[in-house]
Amino acid sequence: MNRFRNFMYGRYGFDQFTRALIICSLVLSVMMNLTRISWLILIAYVPFIYALYRTFSKDIQRRTHENMAYMRFSGNLRNRFVHLKLYLVGTKSHKYYKCSKCKQLIRVPRNKGRIAITCPKCRNEFIRRT
Ligand SMILES: [Zn+2]
Fold first, then answer.
1. Where are the domains of the chain?
2. Sorting pLDDT into bands at 50, 70 and 90, what band is 87?
3. pTM over cut 0.85
């Protein structure tokens, strides 16, 4: 354990970007296995080798910058997914009600006044203000 600690001294180690590279490598290896073309598996090793290289790298500043860039990129991606979800769900134009009988979530357009809502699942009818 001591030898390992000495070896790792001054080296970068593990971060989020390395983790993403390893996950990427695993996903690629599964995908390449499905193609049944044996040499394609080499592609899956590329992100894995890069992950190892980053972990044992002594250029800590550069690795930190890479990780920051990755975090920015993945953060943007996550934000986009959240916005896409909100857009698809449409909380501004629609309201959500739970059916009083079967608890089914029902989406109804907003600003329609008092309307009778019929549950598509159990045909239960109830009146709500939208
Ligand atoms: Zn219902």
1. 2-89, 94-129
2. low
3. no
